[in-house]
Design a protein that fits this description.
359 residues, 2 domains, Rossmann fold, six-stranded parallel β-sheet, 13 helices, 15% strand
Length: 359
Amino acid sequence: MKVALITSNWNFLPPVKTALELTHEVKHYIPSNVTALNYANMINLMNWADVAFFDFAQSPLVEMSHLAVKPCKIVVRVLGIEVFHTVKMINWSNVDHVICISEHQKERLFEQVPQLTTDTAMPPIAVVPLGVNIDAFTMPEEKEFNYNICQVGNMLPHKRHYETIQLFAELIDHSPPFHSWHLHIHHATPGSWRQEQQKEYTIFCNDLVTALDIDDRVTFYPYDTQWQHGGGTEFFADKDIIISNSMMEGYHKTPLEGMACGLYPVVNCWRGSDTIYPPQFIFELFSQAIEKLKWWAHLGDVAKQSYAQAHRNFVVKNHNEQVHALRIRDILEEVASPSIPTISTKFPEEVTEVIDFGR
């Protein structure tokens, strides 16, 4: 089987590429923007492929789904906030299979595109979680517990870092002095994505920290290009707790990465959170979140170590990205012809010219 991987955001595709390369021929393309050059490259690549896998239900899938002649089979994975924006622009009758990363993400897709549930010509839909690289995100043999709380995510309003800072200030007021809490906020994406909005939101969050007079208790971290290659594990090593305080998530991978490193998760009740995280980790009100944080603080180190291992075990059992990547490979094989030969090959990371991929 010849597989084309196409996306404008490469963050979540490496495990899928690795799983496919075990048995199939794989080439990928990352369009920098919508241009005739990118159109030509993508069409050439799709002409070469038996099936094209698009990550995110947005451009360039929007454009490729409207081709008069579809060059190959198309599979798309719906990941995040695009479910509110671009899914209505896609010609779904030209899509052969849809993958959602959670049940509630599938529900949202149905709400935005009702014909997916009523039109028999629409593609089948599977739910396959993203998962976590459990080999890259590991727990120290003897984990440190230092009243360190972290939140990892885009510096955008729907992640609610601002509200987390307010929650943190309230936690300090309700804690004894020897609980030397510190909040660590880590950017999760390159600044080029929604750059101006991320800059503005970061300024607002810094202003709040100053207004609350907790500058010495809050630290901001820039995006780490090595996050998936040891950077994340290094960051989590001395952290106790990870907060997911978002308004909306399709899956929210970073708290699970933190759990794989032994962190205790405290998760806002965004839609679908209860289908991914056990109920004891979820809060509805700030007061509930603070009680969970104080409960953790009062545990002894032996109990914390035991819980930390249990958190990792939960991720290893339920959210191993290698397992989920193999499920995606199965879906692509089902979509493509079952008689296609399997050959493993590699392809350059970047393309800067029109390429003839052959047939």
